[in-house]
Design a protein that fits this description.
Layout (H helix, E strand, L loop, with lengths): L7 E3 L2 E4 L4 E4 L2 E4 L2 H12 L5 E2 H8 L7 H15 L9 E4 L3 E4 L3 E2 L12 H19 L5 E7 L6 E7 L5 E7 L5 E7 L2 E8 L4 E6 L4 E6 L7 E7 L2 E7 L7 E8 L4 E7 L11 E7 L5 E7 L3 E9 L2 E8 L3 E8 L4 E9 L3 E6 L4 E6 L5 E4 L5 E3 L8 E7 L2 E15 L14 E6 L5 E6 L6 E6 L5 E4 L12 E2 L5 E6 L2 E6 L5 E3 L6 E8 L8 E6 L5 E5 L5 E4 L4 E5 L4 E5 L2 E4 L4 E2 L5 E8 L2 E8 L2 E7 L5 E6 L6 E7 L5 E21 L1
Antiparallel strand pairs: 1-2, 1-8, 2-3, 3-4, 5-7, 6-7, 9-53, 10-11, 11-12, 12-13, 14-15, 15-16, 16-17, 18-19, 19-20, 20-21, 22-23, 23-24, 24-25, 26-27, 27-28, 28-29, 30-31, 31-53, 32-33, 33-34, 34-35, 36-37, 37-38, 38-39, 40-41, 41-42, 42-43, 44-45, 45-46, 46-47, 48-49, 49-50, 50-51, 52-53
Length: 662
């Protein structure tokens, strides 16, 4: 599919894909990379309806189709292009079909002829414009760099905060017994941490270089306690009586002068079914409490940031929209800065740069709030979203979450076969049961590992391009070969020689669905998912020829005369037989030999069903609640059925240090 990569013009609007910018005559809007990629695809085929599935597979190759993800990007494009969804002039929605960009696409003008008498002055103007353009567009963009681990243990460390002078960092740590303790680490003497572990801590903030304020975890009362750093440790001083009638104090934050900001449960609704949250200001000198804003139960405060001119609030409204608000504590006025933030944003105020920094907690994205309330993209090396963020001058301290996923099988459900601190998933067991290949993020990004009869796993695909997706490995019945897809290529691995070969397939591929084998050496067909089109590619191994098959269904079984496909929530055979679950959704479907296995999830229950190639039901069994994704199975010589699944267990987090430059 054609995709524009160089600057182009839509109705006098200059689109710059290299900088992710939409340049109107009166201003510039920034776009997130995926939204710009979508715009380039639509502009590559103007005045043409492009199917939703095709667009989704182009932007999110190998991912499950989600109309809402595509609709969100379309909304971002319309906002950046100043196009209306009710009366569009550029981007049009075609119900149950897709989207089109209706406009003439042209290249930016590079210059015009100038009369001789005005040539000198025109050249001067051109040089002036070039100088201004160079200053605006070619100065180094804001960037986060030099990411280093500040903590890296098996315990969860989070909510790191610099002391006012930047010489110490305090953070929370969840111990092995799930108790939360406060840790203070002097940067000049990192070997002697100070701990406060005998108080149940929900949140904290620095007051001075020697004092901190702690919010306790207490269902009976909202307790704020001052503590002091001494030579003998962290010493509690006294609690503040002004907040004893509040509940669930969180997002504790030191503001200018003697102001403290926090979020709590509204005292008048704490005992009702409609609990409201309030944003409060506490004066540490007079102990005066002021309610800045009252929020209904459907509104969730994501984060607060205190600036000299007031309080910024990241608000998740009705579980759909993230808004950025600004509150003036003196006048109690609330202004909406941005009503359509894409994500759940953590906030950090940079007094060094006099900027508000926004960091997405769901995906790696960082922005700065400009003077015109536009979001300016900050280039970064983050690999995931952040749990929280704190700034001291140009140093940024963030918490990164690491999801622990382990691999289990039905034969030994109480002990993980693959276990690490990070994600181990998409396990594929060989037909003999001797070897298991799985994807793991043990090195910080996906790589493909193999283990043989519980030996130490070894890397068989290093993923040099650091792609974020590697498909499930598909084994040959002889257990000596396997194939998988990564970086839009298909790789074949020889178990005996450990030789890894990229197959000569010219089509971009995201997944290997099925390996139709043959008794003839070198023969067989691989059924593959095309990266940009909703179709299957058949690759004939002996001849090297590829064949585009009609229809968007995934082939999960194939013989010379018969095949079974899976699309949405339905299985279909080439003879016209179809099957759908009576309740729930098909989470995964694959084949083992002549058996079709289907994982069905429904509220409160999961099932694993077994069919023959004609979709006759052979058996079904309940799945344990811990089985998030059944990825492979085998039948032993005694016809014992063993399936393998991924199990999400817990989330660890570590503190990371970065440098912020403008």
């Amino acid at each position: 599919m054609e995709k524009l990569t160089h600057a182009f013009v839509i109705n006098n609007i200059i689109i710059d894909p290299q900088r992710n910018q939409v340049q109107h005559p009166d201003g510039i809007n920034s776009l997130e990379p995926k939204a710009m990629a979508l715009l380039c695809v639509l502009a590559g085929q103007p005045n043409t309806v492009i199917a939703q599935e095709t667009l989704h597979e182009t932007i999110w190759p190998g991912r499950v189709f989600s109309p809402s993800s595509l609709q969100r990007l379309i909304a971002l494009l319309r906002k950046a292009l100043r196009d209306s969804s009710k009366s569009p002039e550029i981007i049009f929605t075609h119900a149950k079909q897709g989207y089109s960009l209706e406009a003439a696409i042209s290249k930016p003008q590079t210059g015009t002829k100038t009369p001789a008498k005005t040539l000198l002055s025109a050249l001067g103007l051109v040089f002036l414009l070039l100088a201004i353009t160079a200053y605006i567009f070619y100065r180094p963009p804001p960037r986060l760099s030099d990411i280093q681990a500040f903590t890296f243990t098996s315990l969860a460390e989070f909510n790191g905060q610099f002391s006012p002078d930047g010489k110490a960092i305090a953070f929370l740590r969840q111990s092995a017994d799930k108790q939360t303790e406060l840790v203070v680490r002097q940067l000049e003497n990192p070997g002697k941490d100070q701990l406060l572990s005998d108080v149940q801590i929900r949140d904290f903030t620095w007051l001075t270089n020697k004092q901190l304020l702690i919010a306790q975890t207490d269902s009976e009362a909202g307790k704020l306690i001052r503590v002091r750093l001494t030579q003998s440790g962290i010493q509690p001083q006294h609690s503040l009586p002004a907040t004893k009638h509040l509940r669930n104090i969180r997002h504790l934050l030191k503001g200018p002068d003697s102001a403290i900001y926090f979020v709590a449960t509204h005292p008048d609704t704490a005992q009702t079914d409609k609990i409201q949250s309030v944003i409060m200001q506490l004066n540490l000198i007079s102990f005066e409490l002021k309610t800045l804003m009252t929020l209904p139960a459907a509104h969730d405060i994501v984060d607060l940031a205190a600036a000299p001119d007031g309080l910024y609030v990241s608000l998740f409204e009705n579980r759909k929209i993230n808004k950025l608000l600004h509150i003036d504590p003196d006048s109690l006025s609330v202004n909406v800065i941005n009503a359509e933030l894409d994500g759940r944003y953590k906030l950090a105020w940079s007094s060094h740069h006099n900027r508000l920094i926004l960091l997405d907690s769901l995906k790696p994205a960082v922005f700065a709030l400009a003077a015109n309330n536009q979001l300016v993209t900050i280039h970064h090396a983050l690999s995931a979203g952040v749990l929280d963020a704190n700034l001291y001058q140009d140093k940024l301290l963030t918490s990164r979450a690491h999801q622990t996923i382990n691999v289990f099988n039905s034969q030994s459900p109480d002990a993980a076969l693959m276990h690490s601190k990070y994600e181990d998933y998409l396990a594929s067991v060989s037909p003999t049961g001797r070897s298991v290949v799985f994807v793991s993020n043990r090195s910080g990004y996906p790589q493909l590992y193999m283990t043989d009869q519980n030996k130490q796993p070894e890397v068989i695909f290093t993923n040099p391009g650091r792609e974020d997706f590697i498909s499930r490995a598909i084994w040959h019945p002889d257990a000596q070969q396997l194939v998988f897809a990564a970086d839009k290529k298909v790789y074949q691995f020889d178990v005996a020689t450990h030789e890894l070969t990229a197959l000569p397939i010219t089509q971009p591929i995201t997944r290997v669905e099925y390996w139709q084998t043959s008794d003839l050496p070198g023969a067989g067909v691989l059924y593959l998912t095309h990266a940009t089109q909703a179709s299957t590619v058949a690759y004939h191994i002996d001849s090297g020829e590829t064949e585009m098959l009609s229809g968007p269904e995934h082939f999960i079984y194939a013989s010379k005369t018969h095949h079974v496909g899976w699309q949405d929530n339905t299985l279909r055979t080439s003879t016209g037989v179809s099957w759908q679950p009576d309740s729930g959704q098909i989470r995964h479907a694959f084949s083992v030999g002549e058996r079709i296995l289907v994982q069905v999830t429904a509220p409160g229950a999961q099932r694993l069903l077994e069919f023959d190639p004609h979709l006759n039901l052979l058996s079904q069994q309940p799945l344990p609640k811990s089985a998030q994704f059944v990825s492979s199975a085998l039948y032993t010589e005694q016809n014992t059925f063993i399936y393998y699944y991924s199990h999400w267990q817990n989330t660890d987090s570590d503190l990371m240090l970065s440098q912020l430059t403008f």
